[in-house]
Write a structure and sequence with these properties.
- The protein has about 325 residues and is of the alpha+beta class.
- It folds into three domains: about 150 residues, Sandwich (Jelly Rolls); about 120 residues, no CATH class; about 35 residues.
- Helices cover about 15% and strands about 40% of the residues.
- The protein is built from three helices and 20 strands.
- Strands 1, 4, 17, 18 and 20 form a five-stranded antiparallel beta sheet that branches. It has a five-stranded antiparallel beta sheet with strand order 2-3-19-13-16, with no helix packed on it.
- A hairpin with a 2-residue loop joins strand 11 and strand 12.
- The two termini are about 50 Å apart.
Length: about 325
């Protein structure tokens, strides 16, 4: 099916004038059938994000990625192991390598059974975490980034994404310190880049779209409502710009009418992102209709196909008749 654009509408939107929602998840409500869509005539809606201007006011660590569980196990007076788990929560903000080491060292040593020291390995870009005893015999130390694990179950706060990335560990991993003299040692297994907490912003719309995205399973794709992917390549507190004025990326939505737009900013793990300042965007709505010539061509193609089938049947019948005569 070939479609043609019958008319186009531009919506210049500012989250400051949103109908509801939040800065990161604004809702814009329109008068009923503002664009006068006529689905009974075969019309449909194509939507595209033309441009967006977003203030980079979200931080490297936010409430969804600034936590992890540390479980410390010691021997009690009877020589039996006793495990104490606690939630470590980093201060929300942006860090460089030095300020991050100071922050994580401070938080690990608060209410701890052990003394922690963190060093940077320049040759591998990793962090080395060391725990020394404070008069107690260390049995084990565990950094837990998995909210479903046995260590984290006693913690009421959901880890969500956790701060595994900034600390140099895999998503959802459970990492146990190795024996190091009288203490314990753990080296991060992912190079530390001190990259921003959000490397790409995804602009999503609540309407069902004819895009496709992969989920956590390899080579598994499903309908996706992503309108655009905006790389976060600028430093914090700058402005992020997105332009697609040539309609290189657009999608057809299944709604028969368009009464509102629910936009949401998300990161790579589809966690909602909330900037601290309002932002603007331009949405283009194209009204599509099946092209008349396309309908005629489809009809002609169907007639040609029927003609071919009739011709093939006649040819087969003649061949069979000829074979019968030859036999006789």
């Amino acid at each position: 099916m070939v479609y043609e654009t019958t008319r186009s509408v531009l919506f210049y939107l500012n989250t400051q004038q949103r109908s509801g929602g939040s800065i990161g998840s604004p809702v814009f409500t329109f008068p009923n059938n503002l664009i006068n869509l006529q689905p009974q005539a075969g019309e449909s809606i194509r939507i595209s994000l033309q441009e967006a201007t977003i203030n980079y006011t979200f931080y490297q660590t936010e409430t969804y990625n600034n936590k992890f569980v540390v479980s410390e196990t010691i021997e009690d007076a009877n020589g039996d192991p006793q495990t104490f788990s606690r939630l470590v929560e980093l201060k929300i903000g942006n860090y460089n390598l030095n300020t991050f080491i100071l922050e994580i060292t401070s938080k690990l040593n608060q209410n701890s059974l052990f003394s922690y020291v963190i060093t940077f390995e320049a040759d591998t870009n990793t962090l080395v975490y060391r725990a020394s005893p404070k008069g107690n015999t260390i049995v084990s130390v565990v950094f837990d980034y998995n909210s479903d694990s046995s260590y984290a179950k006693g913690i009421i706060v959901d880890l969500e994404e956790s701060c595994n990335e900034i600390m140099g560990f895999e998503i959802g991993s459970i990492n146990t310190f190795n024996v190091d003299g009288g203490g314990r040692r753990l080296e991060s297994n992912v190079p530390i880049t001190m990259s921003p907490g959000v490397e790409n912003l995804f602009v999503k719309v609540s309407n069902q779209c004819q895009n496709y995205g992969s989920d956590v399973l390899a080579n598994t794709f499903s309908s996706s409502d992503i309108l655009a992917k905006i790389p976060v390549a600028s430093p914090p507190y700058s402005v992020l710009y997105f332009f697609d004025l040539n309609n290189n990326f657009s999608t057809v939505i299944t709604n028969k009418y368009l009464d509102n737009l629910n936009i949401q900013l998300q990161n790579e793990r589809f966690t909602p992102i909330e900037p601290r300042k309002d932002w603007t965007l331009t949405i283009k709505i194209d009204i599509l209709q099946p092209r008349v010539e396309s309908k005629m061509n489809e009809g002609i193609q169907e007639l040609l196909q029927l003609t071919r089938l009739k011709f093939l049947k006649k040819s087969e019948k003649k061949s069979k008749d000829k074979e019968i005569k030859n036999v006789l």
